[in-house]
Amino acid sequence: MKTLQDLKPLIEYLQEIQHLSSAISIFHWDQETYMPPGAGQARAQQLSSLGGLAHDKSVGPEMQRLLSQWVDLKSGEIKGEWDEAPQALLREVWRDYDKATKLPSEYVRRFAKASSISEQVWVEARKKSDFPLFMPHLKTMVDLKKEEIGYIGYKDSPYDALLDAYEPGMTVAQLVPLFAALKQELVPLLEKIVHSPVQPKDDFLRHSYVPEKQLAFGHQVLEAMGFNFNTGRQDLSAHPFTTSFHPTDVRITTRVDEHDLLSSLFSSIHEGGHALYDQGLQADLYGTPLGEARSLGVHESQSRLWENGIGRSKPFWGHFYPILQKTFPEGLRGVDPETFYAAVNTVRPSLIRVEADELTYNLHIMVRFEIERALIEENLPVEELPSLWNEKMGQYLGVVPDSDAHGVLQDIHWSGGAIGYFPTYTLGNLYSVQFLNQAKKEMPGLEGEIAKGNLLPLKKWLNEKIHRWGKQYPTDELVRRVTGEPLNPTYFIQYLKEKFGPIYRVT
Amino acid sequence: MKTLQDLKPLIEYLQEIQHLSSAISIFHWDQETYMPPGAGQARAQQLSSLGGLAHDKSVGPEMQRLLSQWVDLKSGEIKGEWDEAPQALLREVWRDYDKATKLPSEYVRRFAKASSISEQVWVEARKKSDFPLFMPHLKTMVDLKKEEIGYIGYKDSPYDALLDAYEPGMTVAQLVPLFAALKQELVPLLEKIVHSPVQPKDDFLRHSYVPEKQLAFGHQVLEAMGFNFNTGRQDLSAHPFTTSFHPTDVRITTRVDEHDLLSSLFSSIHEGGHALYDQGLQADLYGTPLGEARSLGVHESQSRLWENGIGRSKPFWGHFYPILQKTFPEGLRGVDPETFYAAVNTVRPSLIRVEADELTYNLHIMVRFEIERALIEENLPVEELPSLWNEKMGQYLGVVPDSDAHGVLQDIHWSGGAIGYFPTYTLGNLYSVQFLNQAKKEMPGLEGEIAKGNLLPLKKWLNEKIHRWGKQYPTDELVRRVTGEPLNPTYFIQYLKEKFGPIYRVT
User: Fold this and answer.
1) Residue B39 is nearest to which of A27, A53, A246, comparing CB atoms?
2) Signed CA dihedral, A227, A233, A238, A244: sign only
3) Is there a contact between B67 and B13 (Cβ–Cβ < 8 Å)?
4) Active-site residues (chains A, B) (predicted)?
5) Does B45 lie at the interface with A, CB-CB under 8 angstroms?
6) Is residue B153 exposed (0-12), middle (13-18) or buried (19+ Cβ within 10 Å)?
């Protein structure tokens, strides 16, 4: 049986590529946090050049030489007898290699440059709510992704080729019934909630809350979660995100609004959940699939588990509400814990995905998923996006954007060519509840610990069960290993009913 | 006659390498500004890997193929007839290529990793004033530089091989008489100043000055100098520095001390001078020698020209002192412009180079130059550095460090292997005065403009005369083109006498 030790030269080569990827990541992080505005064009060239270089190395002769010793490059068949971990490593490296060889290096450079410029124009366009300014860049990105589908190929839907990059193995054929089942339950539940005579009072969330104190409180929660500030940091950016240059250098960002007590806090907890995953990866295997996050859906499960499963739970606020109230005695004067808990769990159809509650969030995703399929499967012209967006928002959420900034321009994803990404958010929601249920089952005292502010047992459980495995198991196998069964949306539906039933007095 | 257009493929290849170098620069910048402390080991690996990659590309088969079309790779002889600019480009590219081919790629990686770790240990050692902690790393760096000399070779002194990396063409044989001439004039002048009965009052500089206001004033001065904040920024770091990822992305850092009014201000002006050079390089030729700074000495001439020639001059403070006094009405209460001007020009032998005045600064450099020569030419053991340092400080400046943090550990340079770098500071001082004299000669109204706060004519002159030329001319030719004569230390000596004579009433 061959072991990881036998793969040392390959691992070292993968880590060289990883250093290039980390350079790309720091350029991106910098672009969103500290880059001077006039550096945009140069940054686009830098990203394009490094992206092309990383791509060249990942398909070049040295990669072929190293990989072909152990894998048939055509079929992906692994030669010889291997331990489980190196076998998985070879499986995943070949998968990436096979995909990357399909993309011409010229395309990779062209894409990197176009997406960097497009992202910068999107920032401008969103600021001015100017869709026509962004439109030609969006068209370029869609065309580039279609070109990519042409290189990669697909079986059933061209959209599968894109989806697979974010959620390996997932297909439109699997998603459609999953989303239908969800819609069938969520829409009537939302209906009941919207029309319930019981509506949480939450106007106090918009009092004045000093930004510095908000950030300090978020910091405190991140520390309780086990986010390691010795190997990570938090900065400000227009759109919160998590990035990692190594498990010992994981960075999150947030934005803060004086008149919104929850926005910065929940973005911190959300990105903190992502960051715990990245900090929990195996450092010595970083750059190899065994030291990489399983999929975006699993990544999102970690952020949503912390943001919603913990951050919007009763035990969590049992400990943290008194601290928050002490931090903001004026803003929260007279607000009792029950009122605060209900306010944190307000369900209200709204325009902005990242500010949506747990229930309507998935309807935002459905709007995007359907538009993406129309763009890719039916060649919908990008000109029609704003009206289609507004139409679907009215249909599923009963609200229509007053401007494109609050509509079709709100998300960064499409500007960087990330089409096929949105469904992973809903998958993340489903995984998160299934994982958290299992954690509670295995640790009956967990909620008691959380109520004491002790979040570390949960973090440790996630480290052990999910983070440390990287991509060793395919997603469906990982879910089965952790929870004993495949992805099952009924946990999520049940969770929503059990949470919102009492708050809104609906059944 | 062939033109730059003929070199397009080479230029594009050089720019690809530049993008790697820019990635290295941003990793360095980040290491000094925002990197989480626990990321040091990973950062060292990233820097090592990218440094090796950039080196591989700059000596690899593609480089050879491109360059050998126009240059004999053995002799450096340029084939065919070329315009002045492409001829210079080929001359400099071959020079870099020839040097780089002498270094094994394995050595480059080893050096990058060792220097990154050594720099991090130095930070720790300086903080604790613990020379023994740093010593093994310093020994490694010295050994690595000696190994490098072995690869590069030299004619007269092994030290020349190192010096040439920072100040191409400069040699120990040229420096020794230059420094001797300087010492002959400076030591008696310092003697007179120290014993003069007239000593500026400067205790008010150590009153309390709110850091934020200090930074805002520095920002205002940088704007007046023409530093472009749209294509640059300023951050905080332990040791002020300037770095550039492109002429549209130039970054400076400073540190600020509530009880030192001048430290942050003059570091801002100093780094601002460097930054104007970097912002003034030709963006379309960035990554080629024509879009690169001529030498460290010329770079330093720009920072010192602004810091001392302008920032410590009467016309400058004629405009800025009233503003500063309005910013700090309490701290500067009752301090008249004459008193302030004298305080800004206090000469006082002290321990720290970066805080030294214009006169004693060069004595600090001589201490380092002599120690470096002893390390390289005479194999002085690093164990003996602290005592030799203290001995020389006593000899030249009449002061002896109370701790290694204020002595041999104060500078970052040796920790990163930058041996042979220090002499460029004194060269910069000499060039700066010679350049500024010429600017005043060509623009008789210059001092009048400066007294009105209009610093832009000088910036424009420097852009035109120095920045835009990159490495088109060798340093001695550049100096001759700008000032009509070769480097001449008498300008500097005369400048010091004319400035300090009246302040200290010495002749």
Assistant:
1) A246
2) negative
3) no
4) 271
5) yes
6) exposed
Q: How far apart are CA B279 and CA B218, in angstroms?
A: 18
Topology classification of domain B172-504: Neurolysin; domain 3 (1.10.1370)
- In Å, how far from its chain's centre is CA A258? 25
ipTM of the prediction: 0.90
CA–CA distance, B225 with B306 (Å, rounded to integer): 9
CB contact under 8 A, A49 and B15: yes
Alpha-carbon distance of B278 to A398, in angstroms, equals 54
d(CA B151, CA A370): 63
What is d(CA A398, CA A388) in angstroms, rounded to the nearest whole number? 14
- Side-chain half-sphere CA neighbours of B234 within 13 A: 27
Cα separations in angstroms, B201 against B322, B339, B359: 19, 7, 18
Distances (CA, A) of B215 to A78, B180, B256, B323, B328: 61, 39, 8, 14, 13
Length, in residues, of chain B: 507
Nearest-neighbour CA in chain A from B138: distance (Å): 26
The number of helix segments (H) and strand segments (E) in chain A equals 20, 3
- For B442-503, give the DSSP string: H-TTHHHHHHTT--HHHHHHHHHHTGGGTTSS-HHHHHHHHHSS---THHHHHHHHHHHHHH
Tokens of B149: 């000399």
Round to the nearest angstrom and report the end-to-end CA distance of chain B.
56
Distance CA B67, CA B10 (A): 7
Q: If you search the block for the tokens 């880590």, which residue do you land on?
A: A15
From chain A, the residues in CB contact with B20 under 8 A are: 23, 50, 53
Domain boundaries, chain A: 4-153, 172-504
A236 contacts chain B (CB < 8 A): no
**How many helices (H) and strands (E) are present in chain B, helices listed first?**
20, 3
Of the candidates B23, B229, B286, which has its C-beta nearest A50's C-beta?
B23
Residues of B in contact with A235 (CB under 8 A): 34
Amino acid at position B191, single letter: E
- Report the residue from A27, A45, A231 with minimal CB separation from B26: A27
* B230 CB within 8 Å of a chain A CB: yes
Measured distance CA(A229)–CA(A211) in Å, rounded: 20
**Rounded (to 5) percent helix, strand, coil in chain A:** 70, 5, 30
Contact status, residue B306 vs residue B432, Cβ threshold 8 Å: no
Q: How far apart are CA B20 and CA B28, in angstroms?
A: 12
B28/A contact by beta carbon, under 8 A:
no
pLDDT in tens, chain B (507 residues): 999 999 999 999 999 999 999 999 999 999 999 999 999 999 999 999 999 999 999 999 999 999 999 999 999 999 999 999 999 999 999 999 999 999 998 998 899 889 989 998 999 999 999 999 999 999 999 999 999 999 999 999 999 999 999 999 999 999 999 999 999 999 899 999 999 999 999 999 999 999 999 999 999 999 999 999 999 999 999 889 999 999 999 999 999 999 999 999 999 999 999 999 999 999 999 999 999 999 999 999 999 999 999 999 999 999 999 999 999 999 999 999 999 999 999 999 999 998 899 999 999 999 999 999 999 999 999 999 999 999 999 999 999 999 999 999 999 999 999 999 999 999 999 999 999 999 999 999 999 999 999 999 999 999 999 999 999 999 999 999 999 999 999 999 999 999 999 999 998
User: HSE-up of B64 (CA within 13 Å, CB side)?
Assistant: 9
> pLDDT of B128-153, one tens digit each?
999 999 999 999 999 999 999 999 99
